[in-house]
Predict the structure.
Amino acid sequence: MIEWRQNAPKWVQVADVLKRRIADGVYPVDGQLPSQHELVGEFEVAPNTAQKVLTRLREEGVAYSVRGVGTFVSPPKQAEENTD
């Protein structure tokens, strides 16, 4: 369960939790993230809030979706090589 902060929308807070879990290796690269339904159950948020979390993670490049399968952790973006 999450202790909600009043100064941030719930979807931002849930997205932050998932990003922290990704950074900590709970969800590895190409590992499946919780479904919308699972997020609703774990965080006790509305389905549209859970959907917004997954959409935002995809928009940020943190996750990608496979239609009919689920949402997965994207590989980290490669740092641009310095060619000085």
Q: What stands out?
A: The first strand starts at residue 63 and ends at 66. The mean pLDDT is 91. The radius of gyration is 14 Å. The CA atoms of residues 11 and 49 lie 6 Å apart.
